[in-house]
């Protein structure tokens, strides 16, 4: 994709279009105009998801974005955004990006539901891990983040720091390491199952 100013490219393309209406235009100019048009189209395609993301970050609802994007519903607006947004996880098509994102959200909901059902266990474990001594500086920082998460009303905020602390525990903390590993395995399974169930319902 060229870094040339798209406004200048559009101006040149428009000149070729006008010239073509008035008479013959050398094929080289037409081909150059088509190449420029493709470049501008690619740039505009990259701008749309960036602008939509900025609008969402600013609190604009999908329902408000729908008419601006020329679609009929908030679901269609979100789907369009997911299809156009560059993939961060390697999906090669727009539909694959939509499926991956919605599968991720289904997994997040399943994990959140499980965490809330097991709130007492998770908070007790977090308290035990927070009391561990003898960790290196990085481990202490992880424990500090866990301690801060303990003050959050939402128990799901414990999951990420618990997983992070696990990598800093030593052999003398084998019992805690095993329990943290079991939680990671459980949440991974919940995410996979939720994504699979959603995919099966869609087929």
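^ structure tokens above, recovered residues below v
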């Amino acid at each position: 994709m060229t870094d040339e100013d798209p406004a200048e490219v559009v101006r040149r393309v428009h000149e070729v279009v006008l010239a073509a209406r008035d008479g013959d235009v050398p094929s080289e100019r037409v081909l150059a105009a088509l190449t420029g048009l493709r470049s501008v189209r690619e740039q505009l395609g990259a701008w749309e998801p960036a602008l939509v993301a900025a609008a969402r970050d600013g609190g604009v609802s999908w329902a408000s974005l729908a008419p601006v994007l020329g679609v009929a519903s908030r679901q269609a607006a979100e789907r369009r955004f997911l299809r156009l947004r560059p993939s961060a996880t390697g999906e090669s098509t727009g539909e694959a990006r939509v499926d991956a994102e919605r599968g991720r959200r289904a997994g997040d909901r399943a994990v959140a539901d499980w965490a809330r059902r097991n709130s007492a266990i998770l908070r007790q474990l977090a308290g035990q891990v927070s009391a561990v001594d003898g960790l290196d500086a990085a481990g202490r920082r992880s424990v500090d983040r866990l301690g801060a998460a303990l003050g959050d009303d939402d128990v799901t905020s414990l999951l990420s720091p618990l997983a992070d602390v696990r990598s800093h525990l030593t052999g003398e903390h084998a019992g805690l390491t095993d329990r943290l590993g079991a939680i990671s395995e459980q949440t991974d399974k919940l995410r996979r199952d939720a994504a699979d169930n959603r995919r099966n319902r869609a087929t």
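DSSP finds nine helices and no strands in the chain.
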